[in-house]
Amino acid sequence: MKLLKLALLVIAIMAVTLGATFYFLKTSGMLGAPADSAEVVEAKPPAKPIFLPLDPFTVTLRDNHTSRILYVEITLRVDDEASREHLREYMPEVRNRVISELTKNTPSYVQGNEGRNQLAADIVASLTQPYFPNPNQPKISNVLFTAFVIQ
Hints:
Keywords: Cell inner membrane, Cell membrane, Cell projection, Chemotaxis, Cilium, Flagellar rotation, Flagellum, Membrane, Transmembrane, Transmembrane helix. This protein is α+β, with helices and mostly antiparallel strands.
């Protein structure tokens, strides 16, 4: 009789232990089921990048004793379609702002990585300013130099 009670006690402890383990694994998501059905979020495919290529620029860069020609092709990466359309609408002003930023530099400065990175940051800062009379600002995430030649 004692042996039967001991066997039933051991079986009950094993059943409780297995049940608790299964419950923990199921709620934690380790068995492939989500931890909470409210937390299930379908993975969305990454958004496609939105680019706006600008026509090439050719400007003169002046140094102390010389002047050199900079030929550059720029593509803007924007955050949304509204920003791309906004920049297209104001393209003459966009090009003027880019030319102003390009000509502020010396040839030796923009030839280095630090100079090009700063130039890209300056172009973003200039292009994200409001365009009169529209108070909206385009959202530009990156300036990509697709051609960069100094002669």
